[in-house]
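We modelled the chain as a single entity of 190 amino acids. Its sequence is:
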Amino acid sequence: WVGSDVWEFLLSAGMGSAYPLPSYLESNVTTAELYKAATGECVWSATEKKASDACGARFGCWACQAVGLDKSMETLLATDPERHGYMSGLNRIQRYLAKRRYAWEDRHPVGRTIYEGGYIKIQPDVYSPVFLERLLHVCCSMDYMEQKRADELAYKLATGQAEDNDWNRRMAEPQFRIISEEALVHIDFM
């Protein structure tokens, strides 16, 4: 299959008699609009492109460093900051990780791979405990800011200060949680 085949399939699926294929979603139009906003190209008339670098996903892990900067997320933030602005903190962390990727002072000096014979390499490898503590603080701060953003919108919905529509009801809930409470307890015991 090529990209246009995938979009034809997805956009033919939905609930109701207008769609020839059944789906658990009302339609896939929202997904198509998200891809359009992120890539700047219309999925209904997309041109086929060569295979992309790394895993090939247009969307995925916000912290991925396989391709450097997340151009899709940056396009979303630039083209519609009101709709996608909640992702700006994730993008800031991703850019920070990209900037510090080869900063050896942020790495632990002892390798994690144990080679045959029980040897390890003495060279910069995984992130150091100091860097991980800083990263944990940043991630927990972003979680707090996202919860606060959602709570403020929920308050505005409840008091009639924001329009009561599907999008606002969705956005009145946090859209991400980087560090769960359970993970934080586990980290605290380390």
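As a brief sanity check on the tokenised model: The two ends are 47 Å apart (CA to CA). Helices lie at 3-11, 29-39, 71-79, 81-84, 88-99, 129-158, 166-171, 181-188.
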